[in-house]
């Protein structure tokens, strides 16, 4: 691979992630189990307006279940999702761009290098581009694009901490990219909050939800769970939807794996998950309006800080 | 701007309009008042108070989030293993221990600004000039400050005596591998003074870094690590250097007489002040200065307005800042 001249690269010789041996420490190798009910969503923290220089922004986090359960292990058993989203625009397209009667939306999803168990590179890989396309489809259906002709808008998502593809104890090859599904659902929710923060007109609030078909206890039977954490289950199929509750519409659906007869049930459960995350979304949006409501103009002008707002004579 | 419409009648615009149209005169109008106050409400020499939050990322050996006003920077440190047998140019025996880290490139910092943190750095492009220069400044400072003990990064193995050895030679210490620290610095929000905040995030993340116990496994011929937290060791820092940046806003121009020009020092500048000042000075000081000097690095760019008096003021402010922040970082 050609070295990236614009960044500092790994030392010549190459490095490998540390190999942990559990042979002497079998007590540390415990698979996390699901403690919440099958139809219960993890707690969500969502807040808008975290990046003042952007027109709109939001931060999404699934905090760890308990206050840091100390297992005595260096190897984390589970991830806690952390995603930031910024929206830049609407703003005029460059002069050389072709005429567009609608708002041109572009989405960009990138994992931080330290987001997952395997270190990621700085250049977007295929799975990140794929997530970006899925997100764009989900958002295109809610934005009222013809209100901003000749304009563009960028939605930029940075995943600071992603979801795991499976349990690390089973080896790396086992994961089927299930973590990506949860990440997409969360990206949709956080992008929706950031779009509202940027003041871009939408037909409704779009929220994302995931459901998965998992093997039951002891590998017998199958059950549908909402908001799966892949480390806790043996996932056989999963589904993500972007759902508009007040219009009862789906703008994006992504299903993976073999769901067999339960395809429809899986979709229904994903919609239920989306409805749950929508309640958090609505609260976050309302809170964002309360905080900056009367100080902040809609068009991305600097938000009122504590010492700001004194007028100064500018003559001379 | 649309909000000019609902402003007070007459020929007056809201201050945001002035700020956008003529940022330079806008800043000047604030500073030339009898008691100068910056547009962000701070006094010229007043710095923002940072908040530090360490250890919030699951998959890093050490991590920190530092928020300083509207600038927020995340730093995550990942440790990986570089095998000594893979080295194309193994270090010679007489290499000074302090040069080892630089020689092998064991610290790999990278600053990423294209995370949507400001409209000036949108993703989809290779890192810009600012990101590259920040990366190199941080790397140079990490190398010159020698804050990390190279022996912390070595993975050694006590090799038993073989038949070929001379009978009176005891077991030998062999360097089998080195820890490489990937220091990834991501800007979440950017409002000026990226270097100070990024450096502080790196320091806080270093203080949070835990390296697992690693050993050479003779049978499998590889380095193995113990997952037990109690056996892991915290990275020791020899010192906590603190960087302080100052912008110098000046009305000097080639069209004016030199004695008519006025200048102000703006400590810890925000984005507006950075854009409108030509000169900047960064002073990096170490907090523990038993051996006399405490100045690690001074960087100055731009014009020639800064004189001895101003420089002395900046260093005095940097000293106060260094004391304040190093105690704050030690408490993290």
Automatic annotation (TrEMBL), chain A:
GO terms for biological process: nuclear mRNA surveillance; poly(A)-dependent snoRNA 3'-end processing; rRNA catabolic process; rRNA processing; U4 snRNA 3'-end processing. Keywords: Cytoplasm, Exosome, Nucleus, RNA-binding, rRNA processing. Coiled coil: none annotated. The keyword Cytoplasm applies. Its main location: cytoplasm. Residues 24-39, 305-316 have a biased composition (Basic and acidic residues). Gene3D superfamilies: GHMP Kinase, N-terminal domain. Residues 1-39, 296-316 are annotated as: Disordered. It is found in: Cytoplasm; Nucleus. Pfam families: RNase_PH (PF01138). Transmembrane segments: none annotated. This is 3'-5'-exoribonuclease. It comes from Extremus antarcticus.
UniProtKB/TrEMBL annotation, chain B:
Keywords: Cytoplasm, Exosome, Nucleus, RNA-binding, rRNA processing. Residues 46-58 have a biased composition (Polar residues). Residues 47-212 form the Exoribonuclease phosphorolytic domain. It is found in: Cytoplasm; Nucleus, Nucleolus. Signal peptide: none annotated. GO terms for biological process: exonucleolytic trimming to generate mature 3'-end of 5.8S rRNA from tricistronic rRNA transcript (SSU-rRNA, 5.8S rRNA, LSU-rRNA); nuclear mRNA surveillance; nuclear polyadenylation-dependent rRNA catabolic process; rRNA catabolic process; TRAMP-dependent tRNA surveillance pathway; U1 snRNA 3'-end processing; U4 snRNA 3'-end processing; U5 snRNA 3'-end processing. InterPro entries: ExoRNase_PH_dom1, ExoRNase_PH_dom2_sf, Exosome_comp_Rrp42_subfam, PNPase/RNase_PH_dom_sf, Ribosomal_Su5_D2-typ_SF. Gene3D superfamilies: GHMP Kinase, N-terminal domain. GO terms for cellular component: cytoplasmic exosome (RNase complex); nuclear exosome (RNase complex); nucleolus. One of its GO terms (molecular function) is mRNA 3'-UTR AU-rich region binding. Residues 26-58 are annotated as: Disordered. It comes from the Eukaryota. Belongs to the RNase PH family. PANTHER family: EXOSOME COMPLEX COMPONENT RRP43, EXOSOME COMPLEX EXONUCLEASE RIBOSOMAL RNA PROCESSING PROTEIN. This is Ribosomal RNA-processing protein 43. It comes from Extremus antarcticus. The lineage of its organism: Eukaryota, Fungi, Dikarya, Ascomycota, Pezizomycotina.
């Amino acid at each position: 691979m050609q070295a990236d001249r614009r960044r500092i690269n790994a030392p010549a010789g190459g490095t490998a992630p540390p190999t942990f041996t559990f042979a002497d420490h079998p007590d540390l190798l415990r698979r996390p189990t699901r403690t919440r009910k099958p139809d219960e969503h993890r707690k969500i923290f969502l807040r808008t307006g975290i990046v003042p220089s952007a027109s709109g922004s939001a931060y999404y986090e699934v905090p760890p279940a308990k206050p840091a359960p100390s297992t005595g292990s260096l190897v984390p058993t589970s991830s806690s999702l952390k995603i930031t989203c910024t929206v830049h625009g609407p703003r005029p397209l460059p002069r050389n761009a072709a005429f567009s009667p609608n708002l041109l939306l572009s989405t960009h999803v990138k994992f931080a290098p330290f987001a997952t168990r395997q270190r990621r590179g700085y250049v977007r890989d295929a799975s990140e581009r794929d997530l970006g396309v899925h997100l764009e489809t989900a958002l295109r259906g809610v934005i009222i694009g013809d209100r901003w002709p000749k304009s563009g808008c960028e939605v930029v998502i940075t995943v600071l901490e992603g979801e795991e593809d499976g349990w690390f104890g089973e080896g790396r090859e086992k994961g089927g990219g299930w973590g990506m599904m949860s990440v997409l659902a969360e990206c949709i929710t956080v992008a929706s909050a950031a779009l509202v923060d940027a003041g871009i007109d939408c037909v409704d609030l779009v929220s994302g939800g995931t459901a998965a078909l998992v093997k039951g206890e002891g590998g017998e039977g199958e059950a549908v769970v909402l908001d799966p954490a892949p480390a806790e289950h043996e996932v056989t199929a999963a589904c993500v939807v972007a759902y508009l509750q007040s219009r009862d519409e789906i703008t994006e659906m992504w299903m993976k794996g073999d769901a067999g007869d339960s395809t429809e049930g899986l979709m229904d459960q994903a919609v239920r998950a989306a409805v749950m995350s929508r309640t958090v979304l609505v609260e976050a949006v309302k809170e964002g309006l309360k905080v900056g409501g009367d100080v902040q103009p809609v068009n991305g002008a600097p938000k009122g800080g504590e010492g700001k707002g004194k007028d100064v004579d500018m003559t001379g | 701007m649309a909000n000019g419409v609902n402003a007070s009648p007459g020929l007056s615009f809201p201050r945001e309009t002035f700020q956008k149209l003529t940022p330079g005169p806008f800043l000047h109008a604030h500073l030339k008042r009898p008691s100068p106050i910056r547009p962000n409400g701070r006094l010229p020499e007043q710095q923002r108070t940072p908040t530090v939050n360490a250890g919030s990322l699951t998959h890093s050996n050490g991590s920190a989030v530092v928020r300083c006003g509207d600038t927020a920077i995340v730093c995550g440190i990942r440790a990986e293993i570089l095998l000594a047998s893979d080295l194309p140019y193994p270090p010679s025996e007489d290499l000074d221990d302090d040069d080892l880290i630089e020689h092998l490139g064991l610290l790999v910092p990278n600053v990423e600004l294209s995370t949507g943190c400001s409209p000036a750095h949108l993703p989809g492009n290779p890192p810009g000039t600012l990101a590259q220069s920040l990366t190199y400044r941080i790397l140079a400072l990490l190398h010159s400050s020698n804050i990390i003990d190279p022996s912390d990064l070595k993975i050694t193995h006590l090799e038993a005596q073989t038949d070929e050895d001379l009978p009176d030679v005891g077991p030998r210490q062999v360097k089998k591998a080195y820890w490489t620290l990937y220091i990834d610095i991501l800007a979440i929000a950017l409002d000026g003074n990226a270097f100070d905040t990024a450096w502080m995030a790196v320091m806080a993340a270093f203080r949070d870094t835990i390296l697992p116990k690693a050993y050479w496994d003779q049978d499998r011929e590889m380095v193995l690590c113990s997952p037990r937290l109690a056996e892991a060791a915290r990275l020791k820092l020899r010192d906590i250097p603190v960087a302080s940046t100052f912008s110098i806003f000046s009305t000097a121009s080639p069209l004016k007489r030199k004695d008519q020009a006025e200048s102000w020092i703006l400590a810890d500048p925000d984005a507006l002040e950075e854009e409108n000042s030509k000169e900047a000075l960064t002073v990096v000081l170490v907090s523990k200065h038993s051996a006399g000097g405490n100045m690690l690095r001074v960087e100055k760019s731009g014009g020639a307005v800064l004189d001895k008096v101003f420089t002395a003021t900046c260093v005095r402010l940097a000293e106060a800042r260094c004391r304040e922040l190093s105690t704050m970082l030690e408490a993290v």
